Amino acid sequence: MNVFGLIAGSLSTIAFASMLLVVGPAVQLGRVPPEPGLQPYTEPQLRGRHQYVSLGCVYCHSQQPRDPAMGPDGARGWGRPSTPGDYAHDYPHLLGTMRTGPDLFNIGQRQPSPDWHLVHLYQPRAVVADSIMPSFPFLFEHKAAAAPGDTVVRLPPAFAPAAGVIVATTAALDLAAYLLSLDHTYPSRDLPKAEGARP
Amino acid sequence: MAKRLVIAMNGTLASLFALSFGLTTVALFCLIWAISRGQLSPSGQGARVIFGAQEMGLAEDPAASAAAEAAIRGQSLRSAETDPRQDPQLLAELADRQIADHSSRAPVLAFLTSALVWLVVGSLLGVVVSAKFSFPDWLNGSAALTFGRLRPLHVNLIAYGWISMAAVGVALWLMPRLLRTPLHGGRWAVLGAGLWNLGVLGGVLAVLSGWTDGIEWLEFPWQIDGLLVAGGAMAAVPLLMTLQRRRVEHLYVSVWYIIGPMFWFPILFTVANLPGIHFGVEHATVNWWFAHNVLGLWMTPLSLAASYYLIPKVLGRPIHSYQLSLIGFWALALFYAQVGIHHLIGGPLPTWLVTVSVVASMMMLIPVITIGVNYHLTLKGHFGALRHSPTLRFVVVGAVVYTLTSAQGSFEALRSVNRVTHFTHFTVAHAHMGAYAFVSMVLFGAIYFLLPRLTGWEWPYPRLIRWHFWLATLGITVYVGAMTIGGLLQGFAMLDASRPFMDSVRVTLPYLMARTVGGTMMTLAHLIFAGHALLVLTRRGPQRQGAPWRPESQPQEVTV
Question: CA B255, CA A3: separation in Å to the nearest integer?
């Protein structure tokens, strides 16, 4: 085997794989329109999504409830199997490959309270006793007293500071807004029936 | 059946799919044909190209003491009754090899010293990240220290700082030896090492500050990735220049395993980094196509190149079946490039796409078994050499784990297995088996072999090599054992809808703690290794003056 054959052969195998696994999906999935029920992100939600990306939430949380044949995601209330149309506005993608924590594709529907999310981000163990999620106190401010317009985090007494209040920064509010926007429980166009979805 | 995602496959895709199936079948028949034609019997002049005319049967390990090397030689074909230093032809060939080593010295050392720094930083970060599972409120004062930023730093530093730089360094050292030609254009590679380091450093600072591309294995912002592309291209220049001026007719199999990735990696890395093209689910497919190919078409072939050289070289006997090694190469090139989508099994993707990857993953058993069998038959009857040769010990552990972890990966891609292991720490254990117990162990072995040859200075303390080996081996065993068990428990808990999700977290806690212990042992091993290498590089510590064929004097300057 000469050098030319070696290089040509190596390029062919990679070209073939790229056709199959890069061009193929691009042709097929690039044309999938958004699901009709999918709302575009608002400005705060997009900023919150950026927080989610930069704080690396994806390393512990997936966003892809699976078919019942693959796992009891629906039974856990994580929602119907997701479809490509559910992700039409997503860049970068956040499908995730790890579930150290639960799937978040429909967390906005499971936990619709902004207060819950703020408390959970400030100190996860304040709402989930055995949680091993990191706390994010740097997204909050400890103030002597709340100023007008401040969002005070309503912490359980055991986790509240001795004096003063904990106030959410814009970053925390944005992140909570993004998490609340994660609700893909609308019926899907691409699934035969939306049985997996919860009302 | 009711809730399957319905995405019809169009004609183009169907034909691609059929073509893939066809090629796969053809490849399988090629293998059967090769076996039936007796191609797998020991033979092949090609395998002997790495030895001098009189060198067959002479064991060599610059990392071993003189006594140990004599003992390895007792294990090999020819006993030590012939003194190689009296054979004029061999002497001339050894002088040639010395010139080859000398020609690659600067670029190889530039890559390897950088790799060692990133290894130490990257593994310290790994321990911190692991401990955070057990102490989630530890280091929570700033965004830069949060788990979600340190974890990608660990992965990227090990992948692009340690493994990539060490592997390129080893490749730069191997090529002049394999081609019996001094390295040409080595300065390009030195410059490449500089740019590559700048890229890694820039990427680290970017991720720490929250500037990230946000997808796994590709977190470094694409604007900074340009530095890695430029640095990598510059490192490839001397390899190709030397290839063009080569003085051997035959390209040894290690050359293939070096030239292949030199073309594969830049294509993969550039395609996956193109901004604003990939979107949504399609972004995820490109992401995992790339991420698995970093291991499959970059780290793996470069490590195999080193093993295919070092195992025969240390033992002084050629690789058992040379044809088998070539089948292994082409099967790897064809199938490994297609396995990536098995990371998205069960996800919102067309079924055909996942199936292609599952099939390719199973087909990977072909190259894996051929390589495993070949190594085993080369070593057969000579396993005793492992006791004496530090290089061989590291490389053989790596080679054995390559077979184990690849076979595990093939079965992990089956939907029935993946159902349990997906989304769990099991995958993390698997990744570490590949990147550490296989790739890193081979690279450690290669560095133990080559550093004395490049510096003209022995490893001063054989005991430190033993400490490195055992801490690393036991550490990764604890790591993989703990995460495999913990991951399976986690997977079964998650599949059981009657158990609350938090059960799947609680069952992993002791195993996560054990992982931190294993990781600490590995990190200690790296500190010992880096410190020991520093002694060699600065020419300190006692010298045993034992290893044969040590450069008595510096060879004449080679113009590059």
Answer: 10
Are the beta carbons of B146 and A195 separated by less than 8 Å? no
Q: What pLDDT is stored for residue B86 in this prediction?
A: 65
* Residue A196 pLDDT grade (very low, low, confident, very high; cuts 50, 70, 90): very low
A2-16, A27-41, A109-123, B56-70: which range is least confident on average? B56-70
Residue of B nearest to A70 (CA): B419
Tokens found for residue B454? 């490049």
Classify residue A37 as exposed, middle or buried by CB count within 10 Å of its CB (0-12, 13-18, 19+).
middle
Mean pLDDT of A137-163: 96
For residue B359, give how far its alpha carbon lies from the nearest alpha carbon of chain A (Å).
13
Q: Is the pLDDT of residue A57 over 60?
A: yes
Asked if residue A158 lies in contact with residue A134, where contact means CB atoms within 8 angstroms, the answer is no
Average pLDDT, chain B: 89
C-beta separation of B166 from B115 below 8 A: yes
Instruction: Give the type of residue at B241.
Output: M
Residue A106: pLDDT over 70 = yes
The residues with which A98 forms a beta bridge, in sequence order, are B423
Query: Three-class SS of residue A83?
Result: coil
In sequence order, which residues have a C-beta less than 8 Å from that of residue A103 and are 6 or more positions away? A61, A62, A63, A64, A65, A73, A78, A79
- How far apart are alpha carbons B113 and A19 in whole angstroms? 38
Q: How many CB atoms lie within 10 A of CB A77?
A: 16
Please, are residues A196 and A79 in contact by the beta-carbon 8 Å criterion? yes
Contact residues, A window 108-147, toward B, CB-based 8 Å cutoff: 124-125, 128, 130-138
What pLDDT was estimated at residue B38? 56
Largest CA distance in chain B: 79
More confident residue, B412 or A6: B412
Compute the nearest-CA separation of A4 from chain B (Å): 11
A127 has pLDDT over 50? yes
Helices (H), B456-495: 462-495
The neighbouring-strand residues paired with A141 are A167
Q: How many CB pairs under 8 A join A and B?
A: 267
Helix (H) or strand (E) holding B369, with range, is: helix B365-379
Q: What is the structure's pLDDT at B227? A: 96
Distance in angstroms (rounded) separating the CA atoms of residues B483 and B517: 12
Q: Is A152 helix (H, G, I), strand (E, B) or coil?
A: strand
Q: What's the CA gap between B510 and B507, in Å, rounded?
A: 7
The 10 Å Cβ neighbour count of residue B25 is 11
Min CA distance, A59 vs chain B (Å)? 7
Residue B278 CB-density burial (10 A; 0-12 exposed, 13-18 middle, 19+ buried):
buried
Residue B450: how many CA atoms within 13 Å on its side-chain side?
A: 33
ipTM metric? 0.94
Contacts of B213 in chain A (CB under 8 A): 92
Tell me the three state secondary structure of residue A141: strand
Residue B34 near residue B43 (C-beta atoms within 8 A): no
CA–CA dist B472, B490 (Å, integer): 26
- Using an 8 Å Cβ cutoff, are A197 and A185 in contact? yes
Q: Is the pLDDT of residue A104 over 60?
A: yes
Q: Report whether B496 contacts B419 (CB < 8 A).
A: no
Segments in chain B below pLDDT 50: 1-6, 43, 77-81, 546-560
